[in-house]
Design goal:
about 375 residues, alpha/beta, Rossmann fold, 5-stranded parallel sheet, 17 helices, disordered N terminus
């Protein structure tokens, strides 16, 4: 069976106007089914929407949240209390989503409970408990109640009812969220998930078999962004973000050169928690050959000026003689960042009191990942 190449459209960033329109629609639906008198215009909802806009999310986004809300409106809108409880379950079930850990559901429940406490406990005790259990049940799709069972059908609609195009778009988005995993571990994890899902929903067995076969045959387009990154800075991040629009996944490969006394820098793992960061002390062509076992790989190189290009073309000649099927893409950096280099930042590091130095180092794109939940969701 031939599988279509994924379209990058599912991950294109939404404009501010589109985001505001989606948030406005969700607010409207919450206001229409609000028997418990929640302050829909309050700051707590802004914090929740901000969580769904976090840049490491590709599937667990405002789009997914709005899709669930619209399904609730179409199916159980006349049952006002049930609809309200389903909407609140939807709102909080993915409010914390960190794919590396297995406790996102528990953390989401904590945010939900903290919000209720901050709002003066507006929900009846049995309603509060029912929503809490429904959120926790999304971890394994356990039908602990009518509320949980109904919500699972909404949450998993793309898998249960989606066509092949929808399924591949969904799978691509999930792949991007788990891109910190190597391909072997990712395939194992997805296969296990599909098998569990088929047991839970026997009517989806054919769909799960399709996705399992797809995973086994799929060769994603992977960019290998290699360098010493000593240190990683905002210029590197700019190249990385551009490369991510070209490839299904970008691996950050850090070369260890004993002659330059460059050692593993643990800070990069902290700076880029949602990316696969690997270290190598071999030739670049050996790394490319290794990574090409399960993927179609391309070397990514950033350019600041013509001098960089001359150097890179010379290196490419060597690599193509050793590995003829070596492919490279060169990405120019933003004009405003041409002057930023690791060597310059190293020189600046000798002057700790230099004003403005820190803004070049280790971009804080994912700094929310390291914030305590109580600070991130301070209602």
């Amino acid at each position: 069976m031939e599988y279509p190449r994924e379209n990058l459209n599912p991950i294109l960033p939404m404009t501010g106007a589109v985001v505001r329109q989606k948030e406005k629609r969700i607010r409207k639906l919450l206001a229409e089914r609000n028997p418990y008198g929640l302050d829909i215009g309050g700051r707590w909802l802004d914090r929740i929407f901000a969580a769904y806009r976090q840049p490491h999310r590709y599937f667990h986004t405002l789009d997914h949240l709005l899709s669930i809300c619209e399904q609730i409106r179409k199916t159980v809108w006349d049952r006002q209390e049930l609809a309200a409880q389903l909407l609140l379950t939807a709102l909080f079930h993915d409010v914390v989503w960190y794919p590396q850990g297995g406790d996102s559901e528990e953390d989401s429940v904590n945010v939900y409970l903290n919000m209720l406490a901050a709002l003066g406990e507006p929900l009846p005790a049995e309603v509060k408990e029912g929503i809490r259990r429904a959120i926790l049940s999304t971890k394994y799709q356990d039908d602990v109640s009518e509320l949980a069972g109904l919500f699972h059908t909404y949450d998993c609609q793309v898998i249960i009812q989606g066509n092949h195009v929808d399924l591949l778009a969904y799978e691509f988005q999930i792949f991007r969220e788990f891109q910190y995993l190597n391909m072997i571990d990712y395939r194992k994890g997805r296969s296990a998930f599909f098998q569990r899902f088929a047991k839970r929903y026997p009517q989806c067995r054919a769909t799960m078999n399709f996705l399992i076969e797809y995973q086994e045959r799929r060769r994603p387009r992977v960019g290998i962004y290699a360098g010493t990154f000593s240190p990683f800075h905002i210029g590197h991040l700019s190249i990385l973000e551009k490369a991510e629009m070209m490839f299904d996944k970008v691996i950050i490969a850090i070369g260890i050169n004993p002659q330059k006394q460059i050692e593993r820098d643990e800070r990069l793992d902290v700076t880029l928690p949602f990316h696969e960061v690997i270290y190598f002390d071999t030739l670049m062509v050996d790394l490319l050959e290794k990574e090409s076992a399960l993927s179609d790989v391309t070397l990514v190189r950033g350019l600041r000026n013509g001098y960089d290009l001359d150097y890179e073309m010379n290196q490419l000649c060597f690599m193509q003689q050793m590995r003829p099927n070596t492919h490279t893409v060169y990405i120019p950096c933003d004009k405003r960042l041409e002057h930023v280099s690791s060597s310059a930042l190293k020189a600046m590091s000798h002057f700790p009191d230099l004003n403005g130095r820190d803004r070049f180092y280790y971009p804080n794109k994912y700094d929310y990942y390291h914030q305590p939940l109580r600070e991130l969701f301070s209602f």
